[in-house]
Task: structure prediction
Amino acid sequence: VPMVAPGNVQVHVINSTLAKVHWDPVPLKSVRGHLQGYKVYYWKVQSLSRRSRRHVEKKILTFRGNKTFGMLPGLEPYSSYKLNVRVVNGKGEGPASPDKVFKTPEGVPSSPSFLKITNPTLDSLTLEWGSPTHPNGVLTSYTLKFQPINNTHELGPLVEIRIPANESSLILKNLNYSTRYKFYFNAQTSVGSGSQITEEAVTIMDE
Result:
C-alpha cells in the first residue's frame, strides 16, 4: 500500500452546501504501485444550531488519477465538518492526512414544522407553530402573511406581520366575522426566507 499521506490539504468553502478541497500530490515513488487516485473521507461533526451528536456517518469521494482537488457537494448548512485525504493504488489506501476542520455558513431554513389555527371567535384566530426541523442557521424571525377569501374565491388585500424568532403562538385580532382567511407562514435566517406553509381558517359567524 502507499507509504505517504497527501500534504498541504486545504478546504475552500464555496457556499452553505458546497466545498472544494485541495491537496499536494504524493511523490510517485511513495505510491509503491499504480496510482489510481485520491480518496477524500469527510463527515459532519455537529450542527452549529443544535447540540445533538448523533451517529457519525463517514462519506467517501474518490477522485481518479493524479487530480489534486475535488468538490464536496450536498453538505448541510451551518455545520462543522472534518475531512482527510488518502492516496490509492491497486493494493489499497495509504495513510490519512491529518484531519482538517471546516464549517459551512448559514443557509435558509426549512419550512416551519407545523401551523395550527385554533380558537376561532367573531374577530380573532389563534395561530400556533413549530420551528423548522432544519433551521440551517440562527432563526431571526418568522413572517406571517394573510388575506381574506370571499365566496367567489377572490383574494382580498394581503397583510404581512414580522414575528420574533422566539415566539410560537399569536392571537390575530380585529378580523372580520364569518370570513375565511388564507395564511402563508415561513421562517428567516440572516441569509433569507425559507419555504412557506399555507393554511386556511374561518372566523365564526355569531356567538
About this structure: Residues 86 and 96 are 5 Å apart (CA to CA).
